[in-house]
Amino acid sequence: MSKAAYEQLNEQLSTELPQLIDLRVPYLDPSFEALVKIQLRFCAEAYSRMAQVQQYLDADTREQYAQGHLDARVEQVLQEIRELSIGGTV
Description:
Elements: H1 2-54, H2 59-67, H3 69-83
């Protein structure tokens, strides 16, 4: 009984595993391509929105942003929030 079950499962796996392996490229390639396209779309939209917001910033703030100084300021403010007992984790 158990030998017959083993042989049946072994035969099924021997038949289906190569088919599954052959299907990995046609399945994964389109999925990976879709992921890359979604990331590109997200980044392009984020860049576009940031450019729209940037026009409302004063010249000094735009300059700080361009030089990367705002990242440090944002991190400093986040650290201050973290130190508050009401802030939780940010």
